[in-house]
Design brief:
The protein is of the alpha+beta class. The chain is built from five helices and 16 strands.
């Protein structure tokens, strides 16, 4: 970042020198590259300095992935429990006694497979300053990109698909609470019924009931991303049509991964940032690798046109 500030200082000095030979022109450009489809307006003040402002449209690519939830045993236990309580209620009703409230017990048909899709969301805006230190097509570019903080999200395909699991987990939590009916607690413990989720080191990943049966995990970076790069070509060509090439990096910070979790000690749900040191061996290695990707590469080719 210090190097970026030094470059900015030299560029501001160049702007002061260049202002002495003011010769403005306007243009436009369209390009393609690692930032998506680039569309912008541009201006040059002389042969040394130019600016660009525009948008980079990144296609929202979706990748599907299915997961086995391993709920077969839980479904068998719930089915057996429901049958026993139903039979008990039949006998209680025949004897004129109060029946058992089934809603206090885990129930429902739990899904065995979860289909998800991951989505890339990285459409950005940009403002860039081009400085041609030798008055040629070679240039140094500094500026910034502005985009969404959640660049990658993973959600379930079918809306509300995990509602049976959130209901099941809520029943388990209620059955083990201090105010639970002792009979309910005894039956749940007898069947050794546990909450359904994924153990990720110190984290228990499971859907939040407040999300109505949906689950969302995402990777987060900075919305404001300083840029530094090199390139060839002018943003407003000397002729009617020209081309530009850019090579540089966006400084978007250390990526952070958030997943829905349940804290069994505090009894709370949250969207929690996962720490690589506490996420277990396999997940921890992946997170440590992701956290090192603090810059986003920019490689673009553009066609530019001159308005005047």
């Amino acid at each position: 970042m210090k190097k970026l500030l030094i470059v900015c200082g030299f560029m501001l000095l160049s702007l002061g020198v260049a202002a002495q030979s003011f010769d403005p022109h306007l243009g436009f450009g369209i390009g393609v590259g690692t930032t998506g489809i680039d569309i912008d307006a541009s201006a040059t003040f002389n042969k040394w300095v130019g600016v660009r402002a525009g948008v980079d449209i990144m296609p929202k690519i979706k990748v599907s992935k299915g997961f086995n939830l391993k709920t077969e045993d839980a479904n068998k236990q719930v089915s057996q429990l429901t049958n026993e309580i139903t039979e008990l209620n039949r006998r209680l009703a025949a004897a004129g006694m109060q029946t058992v409230d089934l809603s206090q017990y885990p129930g429902g048909n739990l899904p065995n497979r979860l289909d998800t899709y991951g989505k890339l969301n990285n459409t950005t805006g940009h403002f860039l300053i081009d400085v041609h230190p030798f008055g040629t097509s070679f240039r140094v570019t500094v500026g910034a990109y502005f985009g969404p903080s959640e660049v990658i999200t993973v959600t379930n395909k079918e809306e509300g698909f995990l509602a049976p699991i959130t209901a099941y987990n809520s029943a388990i939590i209620n059955a083990n609470s201090a105010t639970a009916d002792p009979n309910v607690k005894q039956v749940v413990n007898q069947y050794n019924l546990k909450m359904i989720g994924a153990e990720l080191g110190d984290y228990f990943v499971t859907p939040n009931p407040a999300d109505n049966g949906d689950v969302k995990a995402y990777a987060k970076v900075n919305s404001f991303r300083p840029y530094l790069g090199l390139g060839f070509g002018r943003s407003v060509p000397k002729g009617r049509i020209g081309c530009q090439f850019d090579l540089g990096v966006q400084f978007w910070g250390k990526p952070e991964v958030y997943v829905p979790t349940y804290n069994k000690t505090a009894g709370t749900y949250q969207s929690e940032k996962i720490d690589a040191e506490n996420a277990g061996d396999d997940a921890g290695k992946v997170l440590k690798t992701i956290s090192k990707i603090s810059v986003y590469p920019v490689l673009n080719f553009r066609l530019v046109g001159r308005i005047f």
